[in-house]
Amino acid sequence: MRLLLAALLTSVALPAMAGEIWVTNEKDDTVSVIDVETLEVVKTYPTGERPRGITFSKDFSRVYICASDSNTVQVMDPNTGEILHDLPSGEDPEQFVLAPDDRHLYIANEDDAVTTVVDTESRSVVAQINVGIEPEGMAVSPDGKVAITTSETTNMAHWIDTSTQSLFANTLVDARPRHAEFTADGAALWVSSEIGGTITVFETKGQTEIGKVRFAIQGVNQDLVQPVGFKFSPDGTKAFVALGPSNHVAVVNTATYEVEKYILVGRRVWHMAYSPDQSQLFTTNGVSGDVTVIDVATEEPVKSIKVGRFPWGAAMRP
Amino acid sequence: MTRPYRTTGLCAVLALCCAMPALAQQKPALAVPMVYLRQQVPQPPVLSNLDPIPEDLGIAGAEIALKDNQSTGAFMGQNFSLTVVEVPPEGDLPAAARTALAEAQLVLLEGEAEHLLTVADLPEAKGALLFNVSAGDEALRSDACRPNLLHTIPETAARTDALMQVLVARQWADLAMIVGPTPKDSVYADHLRRSAAKFGLAIAGEVPWTFDTDLRDSTMDEVPRFTQALPEHDVLLVADPTDDFGRYVLHNTWLPRPVAGTHGLHGEAWASVIEAWGAVQLQNRFEDHAARPMRSEDYAAWVAIRAIGEAVTRSGSADPAALRAYMLSEAFQLDGFKGRALTFRHWNGQMRQPIAVVNDRALVTLAPLPGFLHQRNETDSLGLDEPESRCTAFKE
After folding, report:
1. pLDDT recorded at residue A41
2. What's the whole-model pTM score?
């Protein structure tokens, strides 16, 4: 009933909003809300300490925010900016992923070598799974059966069976894995390695490595080409990969694993989100404190939008 | 705001070790024993009592790296262990080293350069892999290098080079220097001179530190007059690696000038002020464990154990020769929380690493700085480059 009501409220509220990009500002303890039409920051809401991961519920009636230094996941009403309640998240939540059931959050507890599974309805911890040191990247397969945690110091992707909440495989990747995503069909898992400078591609079925993406930008020292966050294009043929302090986003062909283009963005690019119609991509640039808007069709940067200090996570709401 | 699910890092690691055997027991665990061998060195008295040298300096870094390795090892079926051996100043280092080498062929060595060479030259160490975690001496990376001795502590020259890159970037080109009275002070001063020359800076004048009284109550009278005689300069260098008098030079100079060298602005392998590149995680793990900030010596030991862990994980072997070959290969890369992958220089076994140029409260920058180019790797603009090193032991 509550869900239905929320859905109704959202649909009523929709015409007033043309779409927003929500950006967490790690060093300001705020979220900036960017209007996709005007490409301006229209609201800034306070959050807990050191906000990083951010994601919306399926109906966009709630926004979940990892407040890392407050050791909690905050649940905010995106219409008012009001914190509705906190979820027990385990210590130092950095990134998380909402399962397809719209109910369970899988949270990486960076300081604790643990992945915490939280039921957002009962607001309780369902499971805590021991993983490697400094868990960070989180992904869940489209069918919801497999969750992934990457651990930055252990250099592994940990494969979690969500029916038992236990590990069933641990696969090595290159140094400092940061982010993981399943392809839309769930057949492959991509894992970026910041210090290794690569993306490792696994076949989901056997957890075997089937590909490696490497990057090289002319005129940029190889040490600074550090893949972190990434998103697949709407049609799945490309991946947009944030390359950290090289200040570029790579466009990777998902069939050949070759880089087709490098797009110049702001300094130390972290994560990204699409506009509701997926025609624009918004990247968070930590050091320059802004967001670059990329035109997806032309693969060109079109605008920089100043946000707070050290923008990190990004999420879209229509 | 309830937080009922806090667990400490240690609990998590312990639980991990216990919980994982189901995955790891498919084959017998690969044992990777390691030793931290410390030759205790008497420290000279210094003026200030403010900053005693921690007794677990270095060792604490090795201990948290062991936990890191055990985490990966639990998933890989590799069992890392560490034994700490301390030899008193008058103790029998060769005997202790032989005993240690019988237990483990992967050994972290802490001591002066002569102690490291004593161990490296033992017949029992011939097939072992040793890590220098304490000595910045240039000779160990040049004439006196040994094929079985890698270095995770940076050479002193890398630290003074990093400092000079910052001074160049600031265009603070005219330098003066105060040199302490001990042989170590002279060596450090010589590194500062050579690094200054390497980057085109001039040391216009030098004075030896000659005070032989406890001048802590009179620094404001004595030190300004002492520095008055120096020629005009932008920065005043201090060569006082034992931390005897340098702290009393800051803000007591005749001219209002920044101090650099061993005090004020200085280069370090690690400092508590490093917080980017995920470093906060390492700083937190260390402080939880040791109840003090992490220092360069702790970092050197941490890096050595982590390098062993990385090589064992990737090669699946604990054989020192196999690990050495992997570490010196192009494939080896270690995340050291300094924004660039750490690797080993193939010509002398020195770990290639950025150097933090810091003051007491903040990171100024991580060297190499932009613009200091190098044909192989920008980090090789710091320290002993291949053409300058007279080490031949690493040539196959």
Report:
1. 97
2. 0.88
